[in-house]
Every structure is written in structure tokens, then in C-alpha cells.
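quick one, 345 residues, struct below
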Amino acid sequence: MTERRWRLPAEWEPQAAVLIAWPHADTDWAERLASVEATYVALAAAVTRFEKLVVVVPGVALREHVSALLKADGVDLEARVQFVSLPYDDTWLRDSGPITLKAGDTAFQLTDFRFTGWGGKFGAAQDDALVAGLVQAGVFGHAARKRIDWALEGGAIESDGDGTVLTTWRCLVQRHPDQSREQMSAILRDSLHASRVLWLDYGYLEGDDTDAHIDTLARFAPGHRIVFQACDDASDPHYDELQRMATELAALRTADGRPYQLHPLPWAQPIRDEARRLAASYANYLIVNGAVLVPAYGDPVDDEAARIVGMAHPGREVVQIPCRPLIWQNGSLHCITMQLPAGLT
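---
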């Protein structure tokens, strides 16, 4: 029998659906629930133009509430939305959702890493059980779930779909302080069936409590491209760090030895919640079938960021999503979503 050749697909490959969990009054969104729900409605309306949306809710009351919101916005609930009732601690499904490997077009493995609330910063017992709950609810058909007792969030890794994984040292050394880079590279290669792991030593955003997730900093794009968050303001405290990251990215090479084509994103002016600066990254965009959804923060460079992301993903419609409410809780658009490969649902 031929051994299955598993791989981690790139986000721009065909998708079956996008997975989200809806914010509610018993989550950390309670204080600003109305504003964040407006962002979720805009996201749902955009995603369902192109593919199915799977929405996790804790029970019937929230399902009915969300259904009413989406129906009022013109979303086709019957054809485009699937609800699943499960408990959850938080709504950052990029980090607690399944990291799906595939072999060919019909075999899928739901890789379920240990979710620790970003290194024990927050309670996460229900979120750590989310993938198992989704499997039990039948969301993924006959796909197999593989539990891996090693802390990793989906936002901490980028895949080019061809065996290369990109990550950050700052994040993974916080999760695994007793392991070397070589040990962690070996675990990533083995668990994700990758051929190589590329590391960034620099890059961070104030207000980001993920310890520098790669999806806030640098993203693979088709055609050996990397889209990354740049900073051109020498007076900004991020300047030196992001300049060093840009130098690291320029030194990276593809598997066949070529430099990547780099697409720097513009830098938004500081957005603050009282004294706290919020992490407004344009790199935290979401790719769906036929489109790319790009965060907008009400900044003058929003449109330029959308243009650059669209240029790096040719042939896709660019849709801006108002994400200022999301960064109040230290994440953005990509962080609240998880794409599911075509054929999985």
C-alpha cells in the first residue's frame, strides 16, 4: 500500500469553509459586544459571498440571535451558514481550531495541538477541547483527528503548501523554553510533514499577547512572495525591530535557492485604548475562495494596504473588513478565523 503523503496546504488553496466562534456576553468581548458583532457580521457577509461559513455558538439562544443579525444583512443562512453548538472560552479560532493536513484530495488529518491560552496567559480548557468537540459533532465527516501534546497555535505558523513552514523564535521559545531551535524544528517538521522550517528572530507588535505570531508579521503568498508588516516611521518604537525583520526576510531563500519577492505593508498610525497601544497589523488578512479580506482600521493607509495585499494575491477580489473593534482584544481578522480545505466539510 502506498504511504499517504501528508502536507499542510497554503491558505490560498481551494477551501470548503471558514470556521469562526461568535462573541457573546460571557466572553471577553462583553464590554464592547455591539461594536465587535458589527465586525463579525461584516466578516460573515464577506465570507459567505465566496464559500460556506461554520459558526460555533454555545447554545440555541445565541444561534437565534446570530441568525437574525445575518439574515438582516442579507446572508443566505440555508445555503451558506452552518451552526455548531459547543462551549468555548474565547473566539480566536486561528489558535484553537484544527490545523488541517491533507493527502491528495480526499484524505484529511485534523492536527490538534495543545492550546494553552498563549502560554498560560488565559484559561483555555474549553478551547483546548474544541477540535475534539467539532469532530464529535460531525463537522468534518470522516477526517481523522490526531492529538499532539505540544503547545502550538495556528497563528504561529505559515505554510507555502509545498513543505516550507515559517515561524518566529520569540513565540515558540516562550511556549517551550527548555527546547532548542533544532528540537522544535524537528517537531514541526514531523507533526506538519514539512520539509523545512524558516525562523524569524525579529518582529513584534505592541498590544500583541501572542508573543509575535507570524500571522501578524509576515505571510506567504503565491509565486514565492512574502507580504509583511513594515514600519517606515523612525520615531516609532517598532522601527528598529521591524527593519531587522525586513532584513531577515530579504535573506530567506525558497526551497530552490531563490529570494522571495517581498511586499511591505504600510504602517498605521498608533491606535490606543487609553494608555495601551493596540496591534493594528495589515498582515493579519484572510484568504478565501476568489477573494482576500483585508483589515481596515480607519487609517489613511487602509486603502494602500489593501492594494498591496491584492497585488500579492492576483486574480482575487479585495474586500476590506472594519477591524478596529478586534484589536481592542489584541488580535485582528486572521486571528478570529480558520480556513478549512476543500473536501473537508
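The two ends are 26 Å apart (CA to CA).
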